[in-house]
Amino acid sequence: MASHSQIVGEQERPASIHAEMTILGAMLVEPAAIIEAIDILEAEDFALDSHRRIFAAIIALHEQNHPVDIVTVGDCLRKKKELDSIGGLSYLALLSEGLPRKLNIESYVRIVKDKGSLREAMNVASLLTEAAVDQSEDARAVIQRAHYQLQTILEDAEDAQLQSVGDFFNTQGDPDQMFEVMATINGINLGFSQLHEVTGGPQRGELWIVAARPSMGKTAWMCNTARYASVQSENIAGVFTLEQKKPSVIRRMLSASARIDYKAIRRNELRVQDRSLLLEHRQILSRASLYIDDQPGLTVSRIKARCLRLKSRIGLDIVFVDQLSHISMADCKERDFRLKVGEQTKALKRMAQELNIPVIVFNQLSREAGKRKDFVPTLADLKESGNIEEDADVVCLLHRPEYYDRSDASIEGKGQIIVAKNREGETKTLNCLFQGRIMRWEDDTTAPVHQDSFYERTPW
User: Fold this and answer.
1) pTM exceeds 0.85 for this model
2) Which of 73, 105, 125, 452 has its CA 20 to 30 A from that of 367?
């Protein structure tokens, strides 16, 4: 049995031992209580180590479809050599004594969850204090890490409930507004008519992944779409270029916008008329609501914080991040690299949802595409594709056949946007043009849009 001193020691931090005992006792005698508890609680939410062990044993039996009672839980703990440490079978029996026949543990669950969240907040505060006293880290990094950890606690503490369709409609305004609410035609136009027709454009809360092999023009595509979204579509756009520096990004935008040779701009080998045209397009870009951040090594939480600051100050409609592999993993709790990537993409998806804007993240494809006879990339070529594909709403793969065959004049300047995943619609291969000399991607209106046989049509 848990000792008096153990309970007193634990109660110095936020805890409700009585609520914990009531929940565990109910779970031992009532299957419905198990469902109620595991929907919200985790083992770490219990203050006592003995209670965490008992809860974990109950969950293990439940997930294996084994009966849950004092005997089976005791046997499970005995096999793990933990029975004596929790107080033996006598303590398990004590938990279920004196429970009412019809016990609703919902309020007890909320108490335990609340106390657990407060203890986690205390841990973050303690670590923040230690880091501040130590002074070995930059203040911004320390505060941003604490902000990320507190945000994670808050999200975990939120009590999400299933909502009926009727209740959902009631929150969407008058019935005659339903068609406007259900439509997804108001996504941001990135300058590709075929892509906009297939996807509806990036929608609020969506995470897009755009990936390509090196030298395919991925950064140029980002510069083109960010420029179009802010200049032509008149949106407030944020660009986080973690790979290229700001001058390089702006040169690409000017080159594509004015259709002036990129190398000529870099080398300052410009004709008089070129200079005049560049100054004209400089003015156009200057008037756009386009904000660029090229600080390297940003974490997702720092990117989010900067977006929040921009949104609160002037607004924000869309964010571009180039590229995923250059985002710092300092915030990640996972040790395995694949799990870290999954944690990053989930955080980016949450950022899109919380800011209520689309987030477009660029990534590099593996070398596997270059080993195939047709060189056409697939979802499997995404580095750590399982994690990335799972969280993305739309995945676009950029492909230029001429990169692999310079001798075929018929494919010169031809490019493709392969919509490999589209959560809200169909997958297609879209034809476009790429002019590397001026770093410009654009529509190929002369070529037909076709359904790619490789990809299955996504159910509507």
Assistant:
1) no
2) 452
